[in-house]
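User: My instructor asked us to take a sequence, write out its structure as tokens, and then describe one feature of it. I'm not sure where to start. Here is the sequence I was given:
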Amino acid sequence: MKLTQAQLAKYMDHTMLKPEATPEMIDKAIAEARKYNTASVCINPYWVKRVHEGLAGTDVNTCTVIGFPLGATSTESKVFETKQAIKDGADEVDMVINIGELKAGNDDAVVADIKAVADATHEEGKLLKVIIENALLTDEEKARASKLTVKGDADFVKTSTGFSTSGAKVEDVKIMREAVGPDFKIKAAGGIHSLQEAYDMIEAGANRLGVSASVQILEEAAQQ
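Assistant: Let's start with the prediction itself. The structure tokens for your sequence are:
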């Protein structure tokens, strides 16, 4: 597989989700995203306004996270957080599912949680990605969570927060792709540090990559 630097950049949500991120670190991420023209900059909700303003005049989206990183907040809290983030300028929302309800087999509760956030997102014309946190799931649960994400009317299913025991794995992306079919979108995130790893995720079925090492990978792409 071989993509140009510009093509690969549009797969990337350039990510700065560290809890210790300073304004300077956020501004650096904005500048890098502007330079390479990534798909988005993904930050915690506090920084949405700053990133939205910093990306003005570009086609780089502002992406934020909801119910992050545990997914164990109430649905009402997730909906409020989503509406506020969109009001502040978010174009894309990455929410964490209720992992405990999924593992308990309470699929209706999982779908209801996703659907409530999907409705709040879509009524503003924005995108919803749903993080299922594969590191905590069996293969059966990964497939079921992916199907429930489709049922909940989201736009993407996403592998990981990057804050659990492991991040994206090629095998997981393949499980997710088989579960959702050829057309539903998948985001792989967490632990993607090299150009080859990025290509491996795309070849397995990922449509978007959540990456903090974007600059390193894109510079590697320029050298190929």
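For the description part of your assignment, you could build on this observation: The chain has a mean pLDDT of 98. Try explaining in your own words what that tells you about the chain.
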